[in-house]
Design a protein that fits this description.
Layout lengths: L1 E4 L12 E3 L2 H8 L5 E3 L2 H32 L3 E5 L7 E6 L1 H10 L9 E2 L4 E3 L1 E10 L2 E10 L2 H10 L8 H18 L10
Length: 193
Amino acid sequence: MDVILLERIERLGQIGDVVKVKQGFARNFLLPTKKALRATEENKKRFEAQRAQIEANNLKRRQEAEKISDKVDGLKVVIIRQASETGILFGSVSTRDIAEGVTKAGFTIDRAQVKLDKPIKTLGLHDVRVALHPEVIVKVTANVAKSEDEAAAQEKAGGFVAQQNEDQAQADLDKLLAEAEQATGGSEEAPQQ
């Protein structure tokens, strides 16, 4: 099905382009969200008559997005989740969670503007793209942690920080070796066969 794009669509085209798309994509997404029109002769004439107004509206929205892009770009959002000791989440972080975090930081965005390349299923710092406008895309860092303290530590370290530090791990290892030595009777010799 041929459609006329009313706004820039990533990997598809610019405003005014006539592109061929699958019927389901046009019928279920492009047409209901008013991102495109069917490419009939009547719609082509109507689009050409309104082209200047559509492009002016797009330019205005893009300029507004560019104004706040400097403030949003590089924003760090803390998301608290339950996870295993190895840092794997019980569930995942969704676009809704990131949109809520950015909104709490003072910039209202919709979850459809959050572009996740893959689901976030681990603790740590994750870069996420946010499309303030189809032509203005910024990067937001999602800091996924078990607690606010852990989030601060991850921020400092630049990634996932295990709960148990090296000193504690060494102390636990020494304790286990001491217990094993006592269980074998304190002898260092290898058993004879």
